[in-house]
Automatic annotation (TrEMBL):
Transmembrane segments: none annotated. InterPro entries: AAA+_ATPase (IPR003593), ABC_transporter-like_ATP-bd (IPR003439), ABC_transporter-like_CS (IPR017871), ABC_Transporter_VariousFunc (IPR051782), P-loop_NTPase (IPR027417). GO terms for molecular function: ATP binding; ATP hydrolysis activity. It comes from Candidatus Desulfatibia vada. The lineage of its organism: Bacteria, Pseudomonadati, Thermodesulfobacteriota, Desulfobacteria, Desulfobacterales. The keyword Nucleotide-binding applies. This is ABC transporter ATP-binding protein. SUPFAM superfamilies: P-loop containing nucleoside triphosphate hydrolases.
Length: 241
């Protein structure tokens, strides 16, 4: 569903992402881990189509992002680490605005979908309030609704759990799992090893722009020759290089 071929990004002299090759199957929740500055956000922005690669190819559901950007982007919902929202809109207005960006017709089906999403993310009571009055966690949940409005096959998420309280985090983790079980492919960066272990079917660790290890949490432990916590594996693998 997502295929990255020799994906590379240079920022002037810096190799932020260095020849990444990855293939992620449909319905997999993929966790992207790595130290600060490793290249996670850069990779995610390229997959979401908001940053142009220096080299390499991105294929989403068979569409080459460079050759057929609109078909590829139609498959993708993107939740950035620092989302932008029009704060003078209400939550409901914002979701209709996003639906319009995806050229979705204003049908009863769309209003049902938006209502269902607001219900799912526990924002129904706030739908008529201005976004500027939302707390950080509520904004975070609203941007997740917005990313799902066009029923994307692929959901790309940059650090989704930052700033969510335990209840919000539990809600989002459950929704991500449900989405994956329904066949949505998730690509998620996180610093939370607990989240990666609990939610992700597969994990890759990136360091200095290169993938240093990939597998299930269990396989990562084995590769590192350790039976311990994922945290120990992460620290050891990222320290060695
Ligand atoms: N716009 C930019 N211009 C120049 N260098 C950049 C730019 N954006 C990112 N970088 C550099 O690219 C490298 C990778 O950054 P990136 O934001 O992808 O890391 P990250 O893995 O998401 O880190 P974090 O965990 O802190 O979010 C870093 O060295 C960063 O300084
Ligand atoms: Mg980042």
């Amino acid at each position: 569903m997502i295929k990255l071929i020799n994906l590379t990004k240079f920022y002037r002299g810096l190799r932020a992402v260095d020849q990444i090759n990855l293939e992620i199957r449909k319905g997999v929740c993929f966790g992207f881990l790595g130290p600060n500055g490793a290249g996670k956000t850069t990779t995610i922005k390229m997959i979401a189509g908001v940053l142009k690669p220096t080299k390499g190819q991105i294929i989403i559901d068979g569409h080459d992002l460079a050759k057929d950007p609109s078909a590829a982007k139609q498959c993708v919902g993107f939740i950035p680490d620092r989302p932008f929202m029009y704060e003078k809109l209400t939550g409901l207005e914002f979701l209709y605005f996003v639906a319009d960006l995806y050229s979705l017709d204003s049908t009863p089906m769309l209003s049902r979908r938006i209502g269902d999403l607001l219900e799912l993310f526990e924002l129904r009571h706030w739908e008529e309030e201005l976004i500027e009055s939302y707390s950080h966690g509520m904004k975070q949940r609203l941007i997740m609704c917005a990313a799902l409005v066009h029923q994307p096959k692929v959901l790309i998420v940059d650090e989704p759990m930052v700033g969510l309280d335990p209840k919000g985090a539990r809600l989002v983790k459950n929704i991500f799992r449900e989405q994956a079980e329904k066949g949505t492919t998730l690509f998620m960066s996180t610093h939370s090893l607990e989240v990666a272990e609990e939610v992700c079917d597969e994990i890759a660790i990136i360091q200095k722009g290169r993938i240093i290890v990939r597998g299930t949490a269990g396989e990562l432990r084995e590769q590192a020759g350790m039976g311990g916590k994922l945290e120990d594996v992460f620290l050891r693998l990222t320290q060695e290089r």
